[in-house]
Specification:
Blueprint (H helix, E strand, L loop, with lengths): L1 H4 L1 E4 L41 H21 L9 E13 L2 E12 L10 E9 L6 E7 L12 H18 L3 H7 L19 H8 L3 E5 L15 H6 L12 H16 L5 E11 L1 H12 L5 E5 L17 H5 L16 E4 L13 H6 L5 E6 L12 H17 L28 E5 L10 H12 L6
Parallel strand pairs: 5-6, 5-7, 7-8, 8-10, 10-11
Antiparallel strand pairs: 1-9, 2-3, 3-4, 4-6
Helix pairs in contact: 7-8
Length: about 475
């Protein structure tokens, strides 16, 4: 990619170790070398955006083009279709509530590129006794059964007997061991192995009458630079390198979420108008990118997203543009994004200040839909690296899109230059744009109950009891 762009030297990223000589800046007084960010409501040609119609008809599409070309990449026109099927079904319980869990497989048509198979895996979890269609949150993460059902006593006894018989058939000496320990069971009622720990966020969603879809990003596009020759990106390019404008992993994961949404909106159990997307850390970035580009997602919960997410590129605090261009994270972005970490090259030296867009404009692309920005505290592991203060500034700056479109922002004004993050635990949840910093670490779990209450109020959902 550097050869394609004529780059001869990239700047190294900041060091996350605060004791290192090249440690990332953590001094707020030095954090704003670019105090003026690209204006959200000014067209590239200088025209002010004064009406909702102008935003919808001109400014939004202009920003989409800039983010696609320079930051996250374009989805090629020849991406093949996806066919979904239900692979297996399991009846489970969450907090005493019955659910129907289904393993889904989305097969990507790879007939034109043999040897590059892609099968997207997801797990759909729906309340078993819902009286009608339910809102649903797509969550990036491993797509396994969240609370697998376990064999009862009779089933466990049959499994135990069969396994012992198989072992004895292979090695008769096992018979002596089993005879010596007649009460020993290979399979006990309740399962041969402990089920994975239940995700409390899923429990809360199910208890609130929501559905959940767990989407495994690794089955769409692996989280490595080498993986760019594989997954959906490799399939479309038949294993060849990307061009500078083509998509990176964040956009590919978003494409996978959109293909899952294609399927979900056809399920009668799902309220097609109220499907959201959620993620934490790199998946928080992906959730924001997904909602920004695909307006069918009615809401987004963005957890601790940092650089490449809600954190402004122009902030010199914690992780920097150079960490995404020179380190092991370049595959998240379009090839063109490398230009902004260039020290020497055909186009000359470029920095974050040369980017035509910034994170507040990406977040604004979600307007007027529901967006909840979530962070934790550094003391519990949501590191300073993520720049919570800068992300709050970006959220304030993005609010102008919501107010232009007749919705409510954080209610704290729109001057990001003077915006100061409120104390931890402050609920800024009155508008369609929301912010809350919880008292936990690198997770959005402590904010899930707040998200559910906020979203239910906004969409007018009250599950039947």
């Amino acid at each position: 990619m550097m050869r394609q762009l004529g780059i001869t030297k990239l700047r190294p990223g900041a060091n996350g170790d605060p004791t290192a000589p090249d440690a990332a800046n953590d001094d707020q007084a030095k954090a704003n070398p670019y105090p003026l960010w690209p204006d959200l409501l000014t067209m590239v040609d200088g025209r002010p955006v004064k009406t909702a119609a102008m935003w919808r008809q001109a400014r939004r599409s202009e920003l989409i083009e800039l983010f696609a070309r320079e930051v996250y990449g374009r989805i090629p026109a020849n991406v093949p279709g996806v066919t979904w099927r239900i692979d297996t079904v399991d009846r489970e319980y969450f907090g005493g509530r019955p659910v129907l869990a289904q393993q889904l497989v989305g097969h990507v048509d790879s007939r034109a590129t043999p040897g590059h198979a892609v099968d997207i895996r997801a797990t759909l979890v729906l309340p078993a006794n819902a009286k009608g269609a339910v809102p649903l949150l797509v969550m990036f993460g491993p797509a396994r059964y969240p609370s697998p059902s376990q064999p009862d006593a009779a089933e466990a006894a049959r499994l135990d007997a069969a396994m012992k018989a198989t072992l004895v058939a292979r090695d008769p000496s096992f018979l002596t061991i089993f005879a010596k320990h007649p009460g020993f069971e290979l399979v006990k009622p309740g399962g041969f192995f402990a089920p994975p720990p239940t995700d409390d966020r899923i429990t809360q969603l199910i208890a609130a009458g929501w559905g959940v879809a767990l989407l495994d990003t690794a089955t769409i596009q692996t989280d490595t630079g080498a993986g760019l020759r594989e997954g959906i990106i490799g399939l479309v390019n038949t294993g060849a390198p990307r061009t500078p404008e083509q998509w990176g992993a964040l956009r590919a994961w978003g494409w996978g979420a959109s293909r899952l949404l294609d399927y979900l909106v056809k399920r009668p159990e799902v309220d097609a108008g109220h499907v959201g997307i959620e993620g934490v850390s790199r998946w928080g970035k992906a959730a924001l990118v997904t909602a920004a580009f695909d307006e069918r997602f009615a809401m987004v919960l963005i957890g601790s997203s940092g650089e490449g997410g809600v954190k402004p590129h122009r902030r010199n605090f914690g992780e920097q543009v150079e960490n995404l261009t020179s380190a092991g994270e370049y595959h998240w972005m379009a090839g063109n994004f490398l230009k902004y970490g260039t020290e020497n090259g055909r186009l000359g030296r470029r920095t974050a200040g040369d980017l035509p867009v910034d994170s507040h404009q990406l977040l604004a692309l979600v307007a007027p839909r529901l967006a909840f920005v979530s962070y934790g505290v550094p003391e519990q592991g949501d590191a300073n690296w993520l720049d919570q203060q800068g992300s709050y500034m970006a959220t304030v700056a993005a609010g102008r899109a919501w107010t232009l479109l007749g919705k409510r922002d954080l209610g704290r004004g729109d001057d990001y230059r003077t915006a100061q993050m409120p104390p931890q635990g402050t609920d800024l949840l009155d508008g369609e744009l929301a912010w809350r910093q919880h008292d936990g670490g690198h997770t959005d779990a402590p904010n899930m109950r707040h998200f559910i209450t906020w979203a239910n109020a906004k969409i007018g959902y009250a599950p039947a009891r």
